Amino acid sequence: MIKFENVSMVYANGNHALNDVSLQIDDGEFVFITGRSGAGKTTLTKLLICEERVSSGRLEVNGFRLDKIRSWRIPKLRRTMGVVFQDFKLFDKMTVYENVAFAMRVVGAKSKLIKKRVPFFLDVVGLSHKSNSFPTELSGGEKQRVAFARALVNNPDTIIADEPTGNVDIEMSEGIMELLLRVNKLGKTVIVVTHDLALIREYKKRVIQIENGKLFADKNGANFGIDDVKAASIEEKEDELEDLK
User: Fold this and answer.
1) What is the pLDDT of residue 100?
2) At what angle do helices 170-185 and 140-152 cross, to 10 degrees?
3) Nearest CA to 172 among 131, 136, 126, 135?
4) Per-residue pLDDT at 227
5) Where are the domains of the chain?
6) Residue 60's beta-bridge partner residues?
7) What's the CATH number of domain 1-80+158-245, 3.55.50.30, 3.40.50.300, 3.30.200.20, 3.40.190.10?
8) How far is Cα 103 from Cα 86, in angstroms, rounded to an integer?
9) CA 89: distance to chain centroid?
10) What are φ and ψ of residue 188, in 5° steps?
11) What is the C-alpha to C-alpha distance for residues 185 and 160, in angstroms, rounded to an integer?
12) Which residues of 4-30 are buried (b: 16+ CB within 10 A; e: fewer)?
């Protein structure tokens, strides 16, 4: 379970990235998190993986209290999560196989298990034939699939995908979403961070909209559309006017 209780995040420069956010994502849910650039999506994601710490409030992720967590426990938290970053974060000097295997080695997995799971997940994402290739030899879509294999290989409780369809064509986008849906059916919590309204409306899952660092909307994707974006824009202008008073 993921639970935000009155969570705020203020950066050293005074930027209030999140303001009094309260929400809950239950185990096994599939959730889209959306919002315009600068709305607070990235900060929320960083808080989930403990890359940033909350300024105030309570944050619980997969049984860990992130507002109180000790540094030595953060790696244990991250073992419960698989993250697909928008820029992939692959090691250029490692092969595809080595990039995926690295995720297992850092958590102390035995060689026998690595040799079993890495080929399996490369097959799942359709990259068995690229096992010995280097990231510089891959297309953007292929790099993303390597990142998915790496995120899945340790059997995490939660998968976070940051703009997973932003760098691929329509066919590949559908393949990635089907993969995430299959993972979700296995009981995993899936969080997709995206600004793609068409994607949100097509898959009709829960949508959490963040605007100006606040929880703006929480609804089913089938009922989410351009009017929500317009409403967020209007509220932003009202906030700006309020600040000028």
Assistant:
1) 97
2) 10
3) 126
4) 60
5) 1-80+158-245, 86-155
6) 3, 65
7) 3.40.50.300
8) 17
9) 14
10) -85, 145
11) 15
12) beebbbeeeeeebbbeebebebeeebb
**Amino acid at the residue 95:** T
Retrieve residue 27's tokens.
Answer: 């185990």
Structural tokens at position 104: 């297992």
Query: What contacts 26, CB < 8 A, 6 or more positions away?
Result: 1, 189
Q: How do residues 18-57 score in pLDDT, each as one tens digit?
A: 999 999 999 999 999 999 888 889 899 999 999 999 999 9
Residue with the two structure tokens 């297309």: 139
Distance, in Å, from the CA atom of 48 to the CA atom of 240, rounded to the nearest integer, reads 28
Report the C-alpha gap between 91 and 100 in whole angstroms: 10
Tell me which residue has tokens 């820029």: 87
Cα 23 to chain centroid distance, Å, stands at 16
150 closest CA partner among 163, 159, 162: 159
- 228 has pLDDT over 70: no
Identify the residue whose tokens are 């660092």. 213
Position 24, amino acid = Q
pLDDT-derived band at 245, boundaries 50, 70, 90: very low
Longest alpha-carbon distance in the chain: 65
